[in-house]
Design a protein that fits this description.
three-stranded antiparallel beta sheet; 5 helices; single chain; alpha+beta; 26% helix
């Protein structure tokens, strides 16, 4: 089984955060202050719900959608991605997990031995055709 490696990427729009500031995965509601309103006034009355609730008409098409049509292009895409009967693609690594701090994006990728291609490309800048072979 392959192990994982962690990569960090600098985020260009990190000017709003101070270095070392903690970032949490805490829940942030889409409607700020709704929990405070609930704690102060109790649950909303049905006539007050119209601002916070989206209504969807229920019909057979929304409850039981039909199967999507599968076309040859879909199989080609799965073949390139290494899914299905062809196994894993040798040049694609699996993304195990991703998370973000104020200034960086971290990617936890599958580790493959000898995978220093990115560092080599960074050092060389451009590969000539004979180097790429």
């Amino acid at each position: 089984m392959a192990s994982a490696g962690v990569f960090q990427l600098d985020m260009p729009d990190a000017s709003n955060f101070e270095e070392g500031e903690e970032v949490s995965d805490d829940y942030h509601p889409l409607t700020p202050g709704i929990e405070d309103d609930f704690l102060e006034h109790g649950p909303l009355k049905p006539e007050e719900l119209h601002d916070h609730v989206e209504t969807v008409e229920i019909c057979e098409e929304t409850v039981n959608p039909g199967q999507p049509k599968v076309r040859p292009h879909d199989f080609q895409l799965l073949k390139v991605l290494g899914k299905g009967g062809y196994g894993k693609h040798p040049f694609l690594v699996q993304l195990h997990y991703a998370f973000q701090s104020p200034g960086k994006l971290y990617l936890v990728l599958e580790f493959l031995a000898g995978g220093e291609l990115f560092m080599q490309l960074e050092k060389e800048g451009v590969f000539m055709e004979d180097q790429a072979r």
